[in-house]
Amino acid sequence: MVTILAVLLSYSFILSAVSKISSSKGRHKAFSTCTSHLTGVTIFHGSILALNFRPRPTDTLSTDKTFAVFYSLVVPMLNPLIYSLRNREVKSALREFVVWK
C-alpha cells in the first residue's frame, strides 16, 4: 500500500503542475506521457491488489500462481507495448491491423 500511496501522491503533484501549463499542446504531451506510465503502474498494482483482497475461501495455490505469473511476467512484457503506443507509427499500424481483422 505504501508504494501505491507514493505513486498517487506523486501523480497528484504532477497533475497539479501539468494543469498549470498554458499551452494545450504541452498539456496534451505531458498527459500522454503520464497516461502510459500510469497504465503500467495500474496493471501491476491492480493484479497485486486483486490477489490480496480476494475472498479467503477461494484461496488456492493455482490462483496464487496465476497472479504471480501475471504481475511478474505479463506486466513487464506489456510495458514496451504500452510505451510504444505513444509512437505515431505504432498507432497507425495498430489501427490498420484492427481495421483489417
From TrEMBL:
Cross-referenced InterPro entries: GPCR_Rhodpsn_7TM, Olfact_rcpt
Leader sequence segment: 1-19
Pfam families attached to this UniProt entry: 7tm_4 (PF13853)
Keyword Ribonucleoprotein: no
Bilayer topology term: Multi-pass membrane protein
Domain G-protein coupled receptors family 1 profile: 1-83
Parts of the chain that traverse the membrane: 67-85
Entry GO MF terms: G protein-coupled receptor activity; olfactory receptor activity
Keywords: G-protein coupled receptor, Glycoprotein, Membrane, Receptor, Signal, Transducer, Transmembrane, Transmembrane helix
Entry function: Odorant receptor.
UniProt protein name: G-protein coupled receptors family 1 profile domain-containing protein
